[in-house]
Each structure stands twice: as structure tokens, then as C-alpha cells.
Amino acid sequence: MSEGDFGGADLHFHSTFSDGVESPERLVEMAVAAGLSVVALSDHDSLEAFPRFQSAASAAGLVFLRAAELSTDLSGEDIHILAYFLDAPLGGFERSLNELRKSRLDRGEEMLSRLSSHGFPLDRDRILASASGGAFGRPHIARALVEAGHASSVEEAFQKFLQKGCVAYVPKRVWPTAEAIRSARDSAGITSLAHPVWYRDSMAVLDHAVAAGLHAIEVFHPDQEPEEEARFRAASFELGLLMTGGSDFHAESEGDALGSRRLALPEWRRLEEVLRGTGQ
pTM of this prediction? Predict the structure, then answer.
């Protein structure tokens, strides 16, 4: 693929199988419309949508990766790790992911139970449908609270009901950061620190993750201003990390468009070379 033919790589967005609002097939349509060449659907702690996404992306002529955004814990802080794979068997990683998925479903049921007991019942079947029948989380419930008239916006739903200290808040089970990185690496995957600007001390998080075998850092993300992007680009060179990037798209009404952040061809080629090397 030449520079002129390459439309960029968006390696971070979400479907109805986690906290996005679009189906895997619709996301592929949007990726084609955005002129992308490479895509990676990275639902939270889940690969459930991948078969449908793979089928649609293949038919559309896109290069695609298996991916997931992992919720991990480092000293009480929620750290997100993007894991990318080609077609090697995932073994223990997939088993651990399925266990986390089950815990997310249990957490969602507990949140609904707490809301109901406080006088805010919601339609469970409708929420499940919005999550494509899979595990549902706080964003699905927040949208249902707005739909039921219990909040005026998703943000207000979180503030009134779902954030820490509120009646329906239930902590989620997460992997220790280093364990998640090692598990993905052991299954022939590569890992990237998602949206590093989100963390209290991003460089300390990076140091911990690199010691565990982290491959990359998400340099290109809508929440990172140009000066922050430059800082993380410099960190990637200093630490010998690859660069990843993506729109972190969830919904047209909730943020940047699919493809709003993307990798250029040189960064994608370096990433692809390492990915293929992990599966040797």
C-alpha cells in the first residue's frame, strides 16, 4: 500500500457490544466513508463483536485487527490498556477476558437492582438489546436513565446515580495492569497505553507498564492537545515504544467522529511489523 493510497488507521473505537451506540457493521460503513484503510474495533474487555466486524471489514476491503480495551488497576487508578492481535489462538487471555465479561454482566445487574430499590426501575431487556445482548455497563444504564426521564443527560445520570458514592455505583472487577499486559503478550498480542493524558502521573504509569512489557503508547487521541501529543510522541522515542492512535469513537452525539484521529502509514507499518513478529 503506497502513501497516496493509505487513508490512515483508526485503532480505537467502540460498538454496541460495549459502550458504543453503533453496530459493528455500521462502524465499518462509517470507516469506509471516513476513508480509513485500517481499523480496530476495541470494545471494553470484549472480543464478542469481532466475528461480525471481521466479516463486514473484510467485505469492505479494509485491513482489520482483533482488539480490546482492557480495564486495569494500578495502585487504585483505572488504567486502560489497548490489546491488539492478528490471528493466533488467544488461550489464557481469552479465558480471562470471558471471566471479566461475566463480572461486567453481574455488575450491570447489581446496578439495575440498586436503581430499582431506590425507585428508578429500568427496562432490563431494552438495555440488553442496546448492548447487543452482551454485558452492559454504566453508559448503557446512563442512556436508559435519560430515556426514562430520570436524568436530562448522560453526564447528569452519572453524576446523580452512577459515579462513585452514588446509589447505583458498583465497582468493576479489573486486572492488575502488569498482569493484563503480560497476558496479552503471552497470547501473541501487543499492548498500548490508552489516552495517557487521563492519568494522574502518565510517566509513572508508562514506566510501570514498560517494565511489564508494554509495546506502545496512544499518541493520537481526541483528548490530547497538540502539546500533549508532542510530549507523548517524545516519550515514545525515549522509551522505545511504538505509537498508536484512534478516535475513541462511541457515538456521534458524544464526541469526535470515527477517524478523527488516525495513524499515518509509517507508524502503521512499524506497528504491523511488530504485530506480525509476535505471531512467529
Answer: 0.84
